[in-house]
């Protein structure tokens, strides 16, 4: 059973492309007003938690970095970036509407879209490569950490940190404007 340091994991707030149902991957879209409010809500959740001794690490992608800045501005002096926290690559499907990509496919829409699309994106990263990237990152952690990342990447981190490697990414849950706390393989959603 894996044992990683204590983690708080945040997904970035809603972006314009999230609201439109577009695949983002490596591309960036600005936070909406709702997305900024979600980041402020995450900041409220974290304000009651002593983050002394925690590393604060964010994806360098604009939407995650902006969320981290809003959510953590009152508690931390420095945000560190790590490319391993970036969103899963979606190849040639970046910028395309999920509904168009799902047409004629057997997919299930969820809060982060149809997860099957992320696995099958032409020239995309795929779940196996994402799992290797996320596992390597988690193994490198030496201190408790706050991670600000993306929908699919957050799910993979949490599946690995809970030791539910066989668990479907759908079942681990998702959402924006919330914080996931992981300690000793137990996940708790903080709203």
TrEMBL record:
Ordered alphabetically, the record's keywords are: Isomerase
Q: Which residues bind substrate?
A: 11-18, 63
Q: What class of enzyme is it?
A: isomerase
State the superkingdom.
Bacteria
Q: Kindly state one GO CC term assigned in the UniProt record.
A: cytoplasm
**EC number(s) stated in the UniProt entry for this protein:** 5.4.2.12
UniProt KW Isomerase keyword: yes
What molecular function terms (GO) are annotated for this protein?
phosphatase activity; phosphoglycerate mutase activity
Q: What is this protein called?
A: Putative phosphoglycerate mutase
| Organism expressing this protein natively | Sulfitobacter undariae
């Amino acid at each position: 059973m894996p044992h990683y340091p204590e983690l708080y994991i945040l997904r970035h707030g809603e972006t314009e492309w999230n609201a439109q149902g577009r695949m983002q991957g490596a591309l960036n879209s600005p936070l909406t007003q709702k997305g900024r409010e979600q980041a402020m809500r995450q900041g409220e959740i974290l304000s009651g938690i002593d983050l002394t001794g925690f590393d604060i690490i964010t994806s360098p992608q604009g939407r995650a970095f902006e969320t981290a800045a809003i959510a953590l501005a009152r508690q931390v002096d420095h945000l560190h970036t790590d490319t391993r926290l970036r969103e899963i690559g979606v190849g040639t499907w970046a910028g395309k509407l999920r509904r168009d990509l799902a047409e004629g496919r057997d997919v299930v829409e969820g809060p982060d879209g149809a997860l099957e699309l992320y696995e099958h994106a032409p020239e995309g990263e795929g779940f196996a490569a994402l799992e290797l990237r996320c596992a390597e990152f988690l193994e490198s952690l030496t201190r408790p950490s706050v991670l600000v990342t993306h929908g699919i990447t957050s799910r993979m981190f949490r599946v690995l940190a809970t030791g539910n490697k066989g668990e479907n990414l759908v079942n681990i849950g998702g959402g924006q404007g919330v914080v996931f706390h992981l300690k000793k393989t137990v996940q708790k959603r903080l709203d």
